[in-house]
């Protein structure tokens, strides 16, 4: 063996010996002893340490805080493993069931204020209409009865159809080539013809006008509700 080979083998063995002599990190105990025991709220994964934080003269602040946090985490883990139910399933693996929460946390946002009732809601409550009907579900009426009030029997199709809305009976005849006009509608058509309009689209125009009126009332209700909140 040459001198160069001996030097190479010596340099290669030096890191190995240094790795073997490197000290292992100290294994901390899993038991935590405190003068005053911890209190736990396992539902929130919370461990409360009532002991005052003391800082030894020979220890830095970061080291003291790290040691205190480590003890709290270890105590919380010990409490979870000794008091909570642990189950294992092939699909979900190991599950630990937390108990109910005991600490009441404050809300991040204020409790929402109730919305101001609209004019229709005030009227319906006064007259007992719809969900404000006291007899609903108590023998004097039922949800099916309330639903039936919105339907009308169509003799042409032999089915119950909505009075209004999508596929409502109030839209029947708008797409027909022949529209039946009574005396009252005939007089109305004479006025419409002077304006360049026809009776065929009158039903749709009235419906659009009702929608616009309802939208105006809805905006008025929103403004009234906003003023009441302020």
Automatic annotation (TrEMBL):
It comes from the Eukaryota. One of its GO terms (cellular component) is nucleus. Residues 1-18 have a biased composition (Low complexity). This is Ribosome biogenesis regulatory protein. The lineage of its organism: Eukaryota, Fungi, Dikarya, Ascomycota, Pezizomycotina. Residues 1-31, 189-230 are annotated as: Disordered. It holds the Pfam family RRS1. Belongs to the RRS1 family.
């Amino acid at each position: 063996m040459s001198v160069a080979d001996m030097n190479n083998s010596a340099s290669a063995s030096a890191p190995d010996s240094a790795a073997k002599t490197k000290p292992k990190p100290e294994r901390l105990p899993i038991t935590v002893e405190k003068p005053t025991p911890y209190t736990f709220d396992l539902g929130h994964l919370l461990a409360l340490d009532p002991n005052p934080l003391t800082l030894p003269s020979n220890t830095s602040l970061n080291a003291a805080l790290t040691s205190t946090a480590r003890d709290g985490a270890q105590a919380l883990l010990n409490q979870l493993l000794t008091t909570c139910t642990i189950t294992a399933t092939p699909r979900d693996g190991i599950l630990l069931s937390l108990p109910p929460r005991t600490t009441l946390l404050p809300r991040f946002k204020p409790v929402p204020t109730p919305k101001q009732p609209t004019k229709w809601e005030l009227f319906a409550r006064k007259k007992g209409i719809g969900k404000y009907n006291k007899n609903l579900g108590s023998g004097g009426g039922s949800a099916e009865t309330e639903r039936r009030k919105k339907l009308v029997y169509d003799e042409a199709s032999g089915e119950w159809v909505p009075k209004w809305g999508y596929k409502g009976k109030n839209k029947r005849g708008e797409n027909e080539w022949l529209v039946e006009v009574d005396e009252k509608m005939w007089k109305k058509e004479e006025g419409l013809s002077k304006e360049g309009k026809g009776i065929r689209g009158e039903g749709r125009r009235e419906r659009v006008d009702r929608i616009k009126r309802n939208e105006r009332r809805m905006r008025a209700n929103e403004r009234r509700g906003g003023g009441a909140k302020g």
